Amino acid sequence: MNFNKNHFYILFSYFFAASIFIIFLIIYLDFDLNKIFDQSYLSNEALKLQILIKNNFVLFTISFLFLYVVYVCFVPIIIPIIIITSIIFDPIYGALISTLCITLGSSIFFVFFIKANLVSLFNLTKFRNNKITLKLKKNELISIFLFRITGGGGLPLVIQNLILFYSKVRFQNFFLGTLIGILPGNLLVSFLGIGIFEAIKMLILS
Predict the structure, then answer these.
(1) Nearest CA to 78 among 173, 145, 12, 161?
(2) Does residue 122 register a pLDDT over 90?
């Protein structure tokens, strides 16, 4: 392991920013779990959100896309945000938006590691020379597509990105393989998520 002060500062900054982002969500969402079962509260909040989106659609969409990309850069759990996006925009548009934002967030993560030269942080000679990595290098785009479409073996997104980064795949293959590979899964999660949401909404509001 070749660890120096620059690597320490970069990693510290990354995790500090991630912590601030999570704390910001916890503090400013101001969400009370008891309100989940309050019909009047849910109806009022849903109406407020609909009016907000309708009156400020462009600004809301741009802000939402920006926050989505930032979220993907720092938070490894993405299924909840995919479902939320499908609820706000509808399953098809939600899946397309999620695909775009996840691809952009993953790409920013990828470029950040390259620019920060974090590849030199660990000695990964054995990892790069194993059979799986060598096969991936021979057919990068197809391999990345298959890796993404299968959900990366159930690994969190950040771990998936790290595996591809340390496999030294080309950026264009990383971007295209991610963009195409995650779309089917995002469509599935969006439709399942909206179905579950509608069932829960009917149960609570009935």
Answers:
(1) 161
(2) no
